[in-house]
């Protein structure tokens, strides 16, 4: 994606330079339309990012149990992040991450991914940090898994849902930490 946006910027810049040097009205008109469209897209992305960022800040301060009871735009933000995790889990052909309580202890199996060991390492790091979160109870964890598996747009299946629920607070915290930089990058 970054390479594609860089290539688009280079092509548009070359179009503008060429149109200016040749004083070609047709090329200048095309350049104006393309630059205007890019500017409009940037404005829409900035507004959407600002709205998304406020929701993300709010849910990143919530504990595990509170994430199960989200409503409105906060739930939409949470669902988007959960679906993205499930898509990553599914497209990388991952398995594992099955979490459960053994007495008072909460533990998860390791995640392995056929497509990429680096994705598996990242998901395992998130899972290891996520299971340390406050508010994880057997009931709240079961509710989280049930909500994820009943969501038709979540592609991770049962094990992906378990892995998501084990690592959700960590993933949301990381995304929140990077969101300001992403907004500035836009």
TrEMBL record:
The chain crosses the membrane at residues 29-52. Keywords: Membrane, Transmembrane, Transmembrane helix. It is a multi-pass membrane protein. It comes from the Eukaryota. InterPro entries: Tetraspanin/Peripherin. It is found in: Membrane. The keyword Transcription does not apply. The keyword Membrane applies. One of its GO terms (cellular component) is membrane. This is Tetraspanin. It comes from Oxyrrhis marina. The lineage of its organism: Eukaryota, Sar, Alveolata, Dinophyceae, Oxyrrhinales.
């Amino acid at each position: 994606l970054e390479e594609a946006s860089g290539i688009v910027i280079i092509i548009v810049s070359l179009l503008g330079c060429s149109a200016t040097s040749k004083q070609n009205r047709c090329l200048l008109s095309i350049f104006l339309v393309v630059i205007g469209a890019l500017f409009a897209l940037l404005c829409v992305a900035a507004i959407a990012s600002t709205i998304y960022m406020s929701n993300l800040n709010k849910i990143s301060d919530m504990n595990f149990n509170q994430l199960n009871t989200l409503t409105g735009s906060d739930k939409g933000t949470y669902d988007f992040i959960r679906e993205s995790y499930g898509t990553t889990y599914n497209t990388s052909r991952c398995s594992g991450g099955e979490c459960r309580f053994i007495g008072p202890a909460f533990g998860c199996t390791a995640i392995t991914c056929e497509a990429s060991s680096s994705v598996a390492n990242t998901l395992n790091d998130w899972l290891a940090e996520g299971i340390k979160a406050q508010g994880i109870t057997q009931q709240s964890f079961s509710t989280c898994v049930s909500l994820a598996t009943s969501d038709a747009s979540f592609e991770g299946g049962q094990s992906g849902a378990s892995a998501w629920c084990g690592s959700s607070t960590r993933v949301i915290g990381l995304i929140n930490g990077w969101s300001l930089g992403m907004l500035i990058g836009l």
